[in-house]
Amino acid sequence: MFGILGKSVSTGIVTTSYPATAPELSGRARGRPEIDWANWKDARPAARVCPTGAISHEDSGDRRVARLDLAKCIFCGLCAEADTAIRVTNICECAARARQDLLTAATYSLKPDLTHNKLLDAPSSSAAGRRERTAGSSEALERLGGQIKAQVEKIFGRSLHIREVDAGSCNGCEVEIVALNSPVYDLERFGMHFVASPRHADMLLVTGPVTRNMELALKKTYDATPEPRLVVAVGACGCSGGIFGQNYASLGGVDNVLPVDVYIPGCPPNPFALLHGILTAVGRLEPREVRPEPRTGGV
Amino acid sequence: MNLLPSLRPIFEEVTHRFGDRLKPLRVERPDEVYFEAGMELAAGFCAHLYKLWNARLVSVFADDARAEAGVFHLYYLYGLDAAHGFFILRVPVPPEEPQFASLTNAVHAVNWQEREIQDCFGLKLLGHPNPRRCVLHDDWPEVYPLRKDFDLRTKLPPFQGERHKFRKVEGEGVFQVPVGPVHAGIIEPGHFLFSVAGEPVLYLQLRLFYVHKGTEKLFEHLPLAHAVRLAESISGDSSFAHATAFCHAVERAAGVEAPPRARFLRSICLELERLHNHLADIGAICTDVAFATANMHCARLKEGLLRLNEQLTGNRLLRGMAALGGVRFDFEPPHLEALAQRLAQLRPDFESVVHLIEESSSTIDRLENTGVLKPDIARNLGVVGIAGRASGFDHDLRRDFPHAAYDQVNFKVPVYQAGDVKRRMQVRIDEVRESLGLIEQLATRLPAGPLRAEIGELPPDRTALGFVEGWRGEIFHWIRTAPGNRLARCKVKDPSLQNWPALSEAILGNIIPDFPVVNKSFNLSYSGNDR
User: Fold this and answer.
1) Is there a domain that residue A293 lies in?
2) A7–B296 CB contact, under 8 Å
3) Which residues in chain A are contacts of B225 at CB distance < 8 A?
């Protein structure tokens, strides 16, 4: 008994202060890739080495539409090795409310050797897309959006019960989701916890490409979750099918089976990315403050 | 022929014993020998190798070679642990007579593997005690996904539900308790049907393959470099081990060896993978007997290791590190410094947590004599890895088939006889200590040199076996190459496939509330099993 207490005292507090502070990542950590769209000379080399088709292009005549789809990206960084116009950042907070917010596309005119001549259409990135939509919408629509957000926060913004469902994952996402229960990430400090039954849940955290053998179980789990409910798709596979895509045994991303509220890219998304996505889903993500006092323990 | 000297007497004996009926095909590599024989010899060859040479049937798998050879091929992969080699028996199955004889009654370990062949290749199983569907659940239409004339992208009708017939267990007061596929914890999906009388479990039926996602078929459609990333997604907790086993197979097919520095870095990464998984399991076993504090400490230590992984390789699960011909990232002096520092901190911290666990008599009481898997049953089922070593099977590919840099270092393989949860935890505790020592040896003697060997275009129709002792147990990848630097077949053998049925044995007579801890003490991969 005293041994247990002594160990706890000598360990100190190890819990991260995220999201008040930035994710604690090392220099080598691979997050989402960034493309220098204006100076991108050729989309083909990166598309060739990309294992999941996250970077792709479509040519018609002397035009090329080049795309970066974060929902498919496994953050392997091979594109950056193949192309100097691409840089791997350590940015892991990529969660988005809409699938198309994870997609960036740009149009180029092509030279005869099929390299890029000129950027014709500036890339429509997720952030830019959001700005455009806001700018284009009427005040009434904006007000409605605000009301919905307030409503979501009112319903889910306090204690949140989460049911995790593996609908076909490789268990990599599970390794990271389990880490949310560790003292380092401590999901309970947000008043959130994982529950054993969908009947107690407000949110389904779904991983994996949905397999054919799990489709029915996933639907039944969803049906067993009382409304209002949120669905969060986790990982490249959950967001898009990832490297598995769609095949005879896999239906691809979770949104092919259920309506998805938030997408968390990554392979697997690290615990910071998961927290970011969950907090985004319930509208509890606030602008980052200055760093508070250093912690006593530390991992 | 450059056969391994230790394999020579066995080779000579079996060729003499079976004469014309057994055709030696080729010695692909000194430790990998191929034979061909008719179906009628498969059982006799198996019995002979088991009896005389103490071999074990590691895996049975099929390959659709109708285009090249006009037949399906069955492969029986035998491990000759004492002689450090593999014998592989190839048996042709003519498409006009698509059937094969089951060995399950003699070797229980191949029960699911044979049914998988029946499901995926449409080769009818003869003489199997339970020849029902396994990988493809009951409602699947008549399709054979691993046949070459089946398109990977085939769209099948949506899952309609099924009435899987579990075996009936009847008697006064017998209840059946169904659990899953969606479980209460944050784990993968599978279905368990317990039959209980009062509290003790009489019988446990397992139904897996819920996360079958066409991985082996997908391998046939990917360029080799992309296939490495797919191998990382076979079982996330063994990302590096699976990817390395795959790279090992490709390297052996190409006749190329990874350079020394890469082999050392591979071993370091394999040990890092072992460490973080073992720590998680030790903690999770404690949680399942209500000692949450120990789990919190283990989770904290594990987090430190995952962050170290990220610091060294850019990914917390070591993804992206594996590469054909070697590894992708070097460990520079600052990385090695961080590695040494982290492990130096880990060692005393880990020992004090182990001390807490050992001091907690209520924890130890729950672990001892719980979920016992007797050595003879384990041997019959072909149980490998942690679970095998806790039940008396003195086996570790790192020692018996040194790969990566394991021939350069010293370590002990812990073996226990009692086969209970306590021993499965003890194997992990011992292995954590060994791993720490291993990494220290490897890091201090890290040779200089390149990180990757060049692998040219693979010639078609080469076969090769790659293997790695992952943290859970032995992992095999067997490949056959196709023209254009692609794969005609990739067979993935995770230790889980072998070990799952052992859970049904270990739980007998235990109470359902102890199932989580027994299950956790095996901690088998659903995804690695189902693929």
Assistant:
1) no
2) no
3) 49, 51, 78
Q: Which two tokens stand for residue B89?
A: 């028996």
User: Could you tell me the pLDDT band of residue A299, with boundaries at 50, 70 and 90?
Assistant: low
Judged against a pLDDT cut of 90, whether residue A116 lies above it is answered with no
The ipTM assigned to this model is: 0.92
From chain A, the residues in CB contact with B315 under 8 A are 29-30, 75
Handedness of CA B514, B515, B516, B520 (dihedral sign): positive
Residues of A within 8 A of B145 (CB-CB) are 248-249
CA–CA min distance A243, chain B (Å):
7
Q: What is the CATH number of the domain that holds A197?
A: 3.40.50.12280
Query: In total, how many domains does chain A have?
Result: 1
Q: How confident is the model at residue A128 (pLDDT cuts 50, 70, 90)?
A: very low
Domains of chain B, each with CATH number or no CATH: 8-126 (3.30.460.80), 215-530 (1.10.645.10)
Question: Has residue A185 been placed in a domain?
Answer: yes
Looking at chain A, which residue has its C-alpha nearest residue B189? A166
List the domain range (segments joined by +) for residue A270: 157-281
Q: According to the model, what pLDDT value does residue A134 have? A: 46
Q: What is the mean pLDDT of chain A?
A: 86
User: CA-to-CA distance for A54 and A70, rounded, in angstroms?
Assistant: 6
Q: Is the pTM of this model over 0.90?
A: yes
Closest approach of A263 to chain B, Cα-based (Å) = 19
B290 to each of A13, B162, B356, how far by Cα in Å?
A: 22, 37, 14
Q: Which segments of chain B have a pLDDT < 50?
A: none
Q: Tell me the backbone φ, ψ of residue A290, rounded to 5 degrees.
A: -70, 160
- Is residue A130 assigned to a domain? no
Is there a domain that residue A202 lies in? yes
Tell me which residue in A25, A49, A173 faces B236 most closely, judged by beta carbons: A173
Question: Taking CB atoms and an 8 Å limit, are B236 and A268 in contact across chains?
Answer: yes
Name the nearest CA neighbour of B262 among B445, B441, B452, B466.
B452
- Residue A293, pLDDT score: 52
